[in-house]
Amino acid sequence: MTTLSLAELATITGGELHGDATAVVTMVAPMDSAQEGHVTFLSNPKYAKHLAECKATVVMVKEAQRELCSGNVLVVEDPYVAFAKVAQALDTTPSPAQSIAASAVIADDVTLGDNVSVGANAVIESGVTLGDNVVIGAGCFIGKNAKIGHNTKLWSNVSIYHEVSLGSDCLVQANTVIGSDGFGYANEKGEWIKIPQLGSVCIGNRVEIGSCTTIDRGALDDTVIEDNVILDNQIQIAHNVHIGYGTAMAGGTIVAGSTKIGKYCIIGGGTVINGHIEIADGVTITGMGMVMRAIEEKGMYSSGIPLQPNKEWRKTAARVHRIDDMNKRLKALEKQLENKQQD
């Protein structure tokens, strides 16, 4: 169990402490269930009315809410960001591996940095380079000539194909596949001819990738994920996609090939993005979006039909199927009206 004093919390968050600097906390808890020894935070002002009764050892709030608190208070610029930093400091998640397991299979010419850990039954092929403090979880596969930067961690059963480059301070969750073949085929008289995927995947620094996500290698050029990108679980990134700095993508999203997504975009869960298009910097796409064309300006975009009772949805679907006919009839009526006005 990790223990931190309130003085240490102030240093971690850059906040201003009002109260007992020697008091200690061991975990972060929600405001409504927090007890002594816990740290909590207020990020939504509508819960400010509960501050006076909060039993946490310390509450992290903005300056505007400080006087509403009855105990120790840590005033911070952004309580949610402060929560993230404190949660990191109190994190007790174990490492994916400790030292190098006897059952790991490591080629003779692999370059190992200092303090590398490799879990049971992992396979690391010829020409691989692992930076300092890299952790490879149990059952992982690292293909020929792949490169993994300092402090990067892979959880169990991650597969990194040949020639893939993964930067420093990255985190890859279990069962993710990076560098598998893109979906490239030519058709000759009804027969599919596979196109070898000759590019690779280049992933920057401080990238986090959720479990069961697939990132395909490029057909000719590389698939690229820039620094500070976060990808949720069960995402499909097709060949030659380029994702810009600081973009966040929620679970179940599918990005088709050769699409370029800008910097600081936020992609909601279940979104489908067409191939060979470009999305500008700073775009937000709400969940279940269907992006068929390029987006040239930053802003928030949505699509899809919200949930309806089945009876109403059937009516809506029937009308959608008739929309082309309705459009033709409307244009005919407009033409008739225009002719009458001219008479």
UniProtKB/TrEMBL annotation:
Pfam family, one: LpxD
Catalytic site positions: H239 (proton acceptor)
Origin superkingdom: Bacteria
Keyword entries, A-Z: Acyltransferase, Lipid A biosynthesis, Lipid biosynthesis, Lipid metabolism, Repeat, Transferase
Pathway: Bacterial outer membrane biogenesis; LPS lipid A biosynthesis
Enzyme Commission designation: 2.3.1.191
Keyword Signal listed: no
GO biological process, alphabetically ordered: lipid A biosynthetic process
The reaction(s) this protein catalyses: a UDP-3-O-[(3R)-3-hydroxyacyl]-alpha-D-glucosamine + a (3R)-hydroxyacyl-[ACP] = a UDP-2-N,3-O-bis[(3R)-3-hydroxyacyl]-alpha-D-glucosamine + holo-[ACP] + H(+)
Domain UDP-3-O-[3-hydroxymyristoyl] glucosamine N-acyltransferase non-repeat region residues, every copy: 24-88
GO cellular component, one term: membrane
Enzyme class: transferase
Cross-referenced InterPro entries: Hexapep, LpxD, Trimer_LpxA-like_sf, UDP_GlcNAc_AcTrfase_non-rep
UniProt GO molecular function: N-acyltransferase activity; UDP-3-O-[(3R)-3-hydroxyacyl]-glucosamine N-acyltransferase activity
Keyword Acyltransferase recorded: yes
Main function: Catalyzes the N-acylation of UDP-3-O-acylglucosamine using 3-hydroxyacyl-ACP as the acyl donor. Is involved in the biosynthesis of lipid A, a phosphorylated glycolipid that anchors the lipopolysaccharide to the outer membrane of the cell.
UniProt family annotation: Belongs to the transferase hexapeptide repeat family. LpxD subfamily.
Subunit structure: Homotrimer.
Protein name: UDP-3-O-acylglucosamine N-acyltransferase
